[in-house]
Amino acid sequence: MRIASFNINGIKARLPRLLEWLEETRPTVACLQEIKTMDDGFPAEEFEKIGYQAIWHGQKSFNGVAILADGVKPIEVKRGLGIDGPKDGEGEQARYIEAEVNGVRICNLYLPNGNPHPGPKFDYKLAWMELLRDRMRTIWDEEVPAVVLGDYNVIPEDKDVWSPKAMAGDALMQPESRNAYQRMLSDGWTDAIETLNPRGGVWTYWDYQAGAWQRDHGFRIDHLLLSPELADRMIAAGVDKECRGREKASDHTPVWVEISD
């Protein structure tokens, strides 16, 4: 069973690349972030043509998450964490959706970026991370095989970025962001990519600006955290780096974990 995460950065703009990747790699579950479409604009029929069923949580022009499953319908468990955006009256942003697929709890998230730092957006990021940790504790108590995956917008350590100095002022690398992420790991969750690549140097994101892709100036912000019940079944984990170099690609590339049935 292969479970993947892909910040697609606009599902309509990247649909050909997304369908291409799905057919090439055929993940059992594909979690998408930044679909950037309202619910009625989600192209579910395009995925059905190649055998995938989906659930999604959309938002106009921003955010949005979806879970696709090969040959089965994801059974929705929860959407949203119950926190409003950083602006008064903004309401909750479409950043979280949770489902059961083939006996595995799939928790798909798009964590707030938090820039500019400091400020209300950074405060929102930290508050969101605390609510996520609370949700993860609830799932932990259920003792189900689970993966909490997506775009965390956190660079966990200096080894996860091409230049710590270049990113030092960014919300993704602030001590508060890193500490919040590490607290999740200290609760007993396993970072799949880190576990199999302890020396670092694995990137999942390259900016569109300043030739970042061509110069390999990237960093790791897309993570897969496994519960003990799932970590024991991990066979492999990796990054589909080549997808970033294709025409009209997302600025992220897919990450995945393979587990035994």
From TrEMBL:
CDD domains in alphabetical order: ExoIII-like_AP-endo
Keywords linked to the UniProt accession: Hydrolase, Magnesium, Manganese, Metal-binding
Residues flagged as site, Important for catalytic activity: 222
Note on how the cofactor is bound: Probably binds two magnesium or manganese ions per subunit.
Binding positions for Mg(2+) per the UniProt entry: 7, 34, 151, 153, 251-252
Cited InterPro entries: AP_endonuc_1, Endo/exonu/phosph_ase_sf, Endo/exonuclease/phosphatase, ExoIII-like
Positions of the Endonuclease/exonuclease/phosphatase domain: 4-252
Site (Transition state stabilizer): 153
EC number: 3.1.11.2
Cofactor section: Mg(2+); Mn(2+)
Active site: 110, 151, 252
GO biological process: DNA repair
GO molecular function, one term: double-stranded DNA 3'-5' DNA exonuclease activity
Residues of the site described as Interaction with DNA substrate: 252
Similarity-based family: Belongs to the DNA repair enzymes AP/ExoA family.
Protein name per its UniProtKB record: Exodeoxyribonuclease III
